[in-house]
Each structure stands twice: as structure tokens, then as C-alpha cells.
Design goal:
It contains eleven helices and no strands. It is mainly alpha-helical. The chain has one domain.
Length: about 240
């Protein structure tokens, strides 16, 4: 748990002490993410559910490994590991990691859509007299909700591992991200809710445009930078 609190504190401090780099990288990421923002707006308008806008922006742009944030992510990684940050790191991150991140983003999106479709199906079945008994529907709904929450938790570590690992195998990165979530529950119980709250709050208030993505990335990389060594030195709380 202390590792989680330290990761959050370090993330806040790094963004505040490197405001220029954070603001610039965040702005570039948002500009590149305009097609995703437009998609969220179209979906919200089509469903007449404008409350979906902050949820959609937080999810598609911040939670999933958005390739448009590759520059922000590389800067966050360097700050978390006390590496030197240069003016060209934003573009270096985009050149190096945007393409592989796109594959991760598409896969994470596809799995998320599948899970959400099952959640919606069973949620609707709860309110109707269908062929599936309610005693069966409720456990299945809860199961899909738990699976979706776990899947979202895994996304915290996808981009940090994509940058940190020498082997960029999609299978290996998802496997390692899964292990990091399962093996360190106390740390993740602190970090993941804060990470999601930052992204959702910044999306709802418009801060995503200026600093939300940079702060979210800082939390991701500080958490990963503190957890990765514990897998070599033994269990951590």
C-alpha cells in the first residue's frame, strides 16, 4: 500500500516540477486524439446520452493504450526512472511506440467491447421476463462486471511495459501486466482507483486537454517503476 501512495505522490510531484513538458506533451496527445474525441461525440449524440462523453474520453483516450499518447508516456517513463528528459522525447516516443501501441489499443478495445456487450445483455435480462432465469442472470452479470474491472486494471501497466520491456511481444506484455495486477493487490487497490479517478475527473472538467493525460501517465509509470523491482527482490505490500 505504501508503494502505491509513493507512486501517486511522485507522479504529482513530477508533473508539477515539469509543467512545461507535461503541458506540451498533453496538448500534442489531445490534438492527435481528435478523431477519437469526435467518435465519442458522435456516439453520445446518436444515443442522446451526453453523460457518456467524459466516460468515453477517459476510456478511449486515457485508459486504453492510446498510441497518440506515446510521447507523453515516454516522458513519464523517463521522469519516473530519473532519466534525463529532452525536448525531442515527445516526438521520439511517438515515432517509436505509436505504431506498436496501436495494436494494443485495438485489441484492448475489442475485448472491452465484447465484455461490455455481455454486461449490457445480462443487465437488460435482469429487467425482463426472458428465457434465462434471474438466478442465473445475476451471477453471470456479476462475473462479467468483475472480468471487466480486472481487464481495466491490466491497462494500467500496458504502456509502461511496452516501453520498459526489451521484448515487445503482445502476449508477454499482457501476461506480465496480468501478473502485476494479481501479485500486488494492496498496491493496485490504491493506485488503480486514483488513476481512473484522475482520468475521469479530468475528462469531465476539461483538464484532459491540458494536464490529465500527463498526470495519468505519470501514475502509470511511477507504479510500474516501483513494482517491477519487487518481482526480482520478493513480495511487496
Amino acid at each position: 500500500m505504501l508503494l502505491g501512495l509513493r507512486a501517486i505522490g511522485s507522479a504529482l510531484a513530477q508533473v508539477l516540477t515539469h509543467v512545461t513538458a507535461s503541458l506540451l506533451g498533453n496538448l500534442v496527445a489531445i490534438l492527435l486524439s481528435i478523431p477519437l474525441l469526435a467518435l465519442v461525440g458522435i456516439l453520445a449524440f446518436g444515443t442522446r446520452s451526453f453523460s457518456l462523453i467524459p466516460l468515453g474520453v477517459a476510456f478511449l483516450v486515457g485508459v486504453l493504450p492510446n498510441p497518440c499518447t506515446a510521447g507523453v508516456q515516454l516522458v513519464a517513463r523517463k521522469l519516473a526512472t530519473d532519466d534525463y528528459v529532452s525536448a525531442g522525447d515527445q516526438w521520439s516516443g511517438l515515432r517509436t511506440y505509436a505504431r506498436p501501441a496501436a495494436g494494443f489499443w485495438l485489441l484492448s478495445l475489442a475485448v472491452s467491447v465484447l465484455m461490455l456487450a455481455n454486461i449490457v445483455f445480462y443487465a437488460r435480462s435482469m429487467g425482463t421476463a426472458g428465457s434465462i432465469p434471474h438466478l442465473v442472470v445475476l451471477p453471470l452479470l456479476l462475473l462479467w462486471l468483475l472480468l471487466f474491472a480486472f481487464w481495466i486494471s491490466i491497462q494500467l501497466y500496458i504502456f509502461p511495459l511496452l516501453i520498459a520491456q526489451e521484448v515487445k511481444s503482445m502476449r508477454l506484455i499482457y501476461k506480465n501486466a496480468t501478473l502485476m495486477v494479481i501479485a500486488r493487490p494492496a498496491v493496485n487497490a490504491v493506485v488503480i482507483p486514483v488513476w481512473l479517478a484522475i482520468l475521469l475527473f479530468s475528462s469531465a472538467t476539461g483538464l484532459t486537454t491540458f494536464i490529465g493525460l500527463a498526470l495519468g501517465a505519470a501514475v502509470q509509470h511511477n507504479a510500474a517503476a516501483r513494482l517491477l523491482p519487487t518481482f526480482r527482490t520478493g513480495p511487496a505490500g
